[in-house]
Design a protein that fits this description.
6 strands, two-stranded antiparallel sheet, single chain, 104 residues, alpha+beta, 30% helix
């Protein structure tokens, strides 16, 4: 319960104020802003950052056509599933991956 005050008197208001929807919208907006900034990061001549969720869905990539696609199928030069290995490693919260990535 909240008290609403004006110059003459104070009276209680029996209302519940919910922030749930606002927070969810704020988090989505913030996530999109961060992913947009990550998309612009480059290192070296051809380096860039890719963000993938736990299901293998590409959330950020320099090639905007790949955003929203599942990239679990991508394999390195030795046939190892790069994205699946990274997701497994993150879920274990420990480890190291050596990958033989094909670069263009």
């Amino acid at each position: 319960m909240f008290n609403v005050q004006n110059k003459r008197k104070s009276y209680p208001v029996q209302e519940i104020i919910s922030m749930g929807e606002y927070i969810i919208n704020f988090e989505k907006q913030l996530q999109q802003e961060i992913l947009s900034k990550i998309q612009k990061i480059r290192y070296g001549k051809n380096g860039y950052i890719v963000v993938v969720d736990e299901k293998g869905i590409n959330l950020s990539h320099v090639n905007k056509k790949l955003i929203g696609t599942n990239i679990l199928y991508i394999k390195d030069a030795k046939g190892s599933s790069i994205v699946r290995n990274i997701i497994d490693l993150v879920q274990k919260k420990i480890g190291f991956i050596k990958s033989h990535v094909l670069c263009d």
